Amino acid sequence: xxxxxxxxxxxxxxxxxxxxxxxxxxxxxxxxxxxxxxxxxxxxxxxxxxxxxxxxxxxxxxxxxxxxxxxxxxxxxxxxxxxxxxxxxxxxxxxxxxxxxxxxxxxxxxxxxxxxxxxxxxxxxxxxxxxxxxxxxxx
Length: 139
Known about the structure:
Blueprint: E1 5-8, E2 14-17, E3 44-45, E4 55-58, H1 66-71, E5 75-83, E6 89-97, H2 103-112, E7 114-116, E8 118-120, E9 123-135
Parallel strand pairs: 3-9
Antiparallel strand pairs: 1-2, 4-7, 5-6, 5-9, 8-9
């Protein structure tokens, strides 16, 4: 069962997904670079060292674990994600999880979501951010 939630990056970027039905977000401003551009460098960047932050391109619907849903358990999983210059997640590491059962669906969503890459100048760069994923039941 899918439930609405908000993804919020440490850089302030947000993407809302309600029941997995929101269409692919489009960039709010013109992109300075694209995933097809050559990477500027091999360094790892955060929101303070880029001209344009990574933005959500496509989101995989979040699946709420059935057992936790039936028990009425809610919580947040915070992931440290690393987005490649191509806009795909290279890796995701669990920082904290309210419940062990939320980890697997959170990692699946994070690893399968694609992004418009972060840019430094006109070149895409590897980017890191904290990604809280909220599992919230609707009543």
